[in-house]
Amino acid sequence: MKQVFTAENRLNVYHIKNLLETKGIESIVKNDGLTSVVGDIPPVTAWPEVWITDPDMEAYAKEIIEHSKTSDVAGEEWTCDNCGEKHSAQFLDCWNCQSSKAF
Ligand SMILES: [Zn+2]
Fold first, then answer.
1. What is the pLDDT of residues 2-31, one digit of tens each?
2. pLDDT digits (tens, 9 = 90+) for 30-80
3. pTM for the complete prediction?
4. Is residue 32 included in any domain, yes or no?
5. How many whole angstroms from 21 Cα to the centroid of ligand 1?
6. Predicted pLDDT at 41
7. Domain extent for 66
């Protein structure tokens, strides 16, 4: 077991977990806030964490995570492949023709 990612926002953590699983890397989320009481624990240690079950996949997992940060969080505009409409980074589907963003 190896921890490969942690973030304050559970949604980011589950996003990374899903991303890893679509690449065939088995992973679990710890400290997701649903199973433990935060109480006196300092916020950083209570952040949810993504762990992979196969330590040999660590380098690959980190590469995927790095790539997802640069493509999702950078906030770059993207252009729809289908109709050429421009969108802000937070939109994952084209509002004009409903095509999904190509990753
Ligand atoms: Zn479009």
1. 999 998 888 899 999 999 999 999 999 998
2. 988 655 455 555 554 578 999 999 999 999 999 999 888 655 455 678 889
3. 0.59
4. yes
5. 28
6. 55
7. 2-74
Going from the Cα of 91 to the center of ligand 1, the distance in angstroms, rounded, reads 11
Supply the CATH number for residue 54's domain: 3.30.70
Instruction: Give the Å distance between the CA of 97 and the centre of ligand 1.
Output: 4
Q: Distance, CA 87 to ligand 1 centroid (Å)? A: 9
Residue 97 lies in a domain: no
Over range 77-94, report the average pLDDT. Answer: 87
> Looking at the domain assignment, is residue 101 inside a domain?
no
Residue 86 counted as domain residue: no
Q: How many domains does the chain have?
A: 1
Q: Which two tokens stand for residue 4?
A: 């490969």
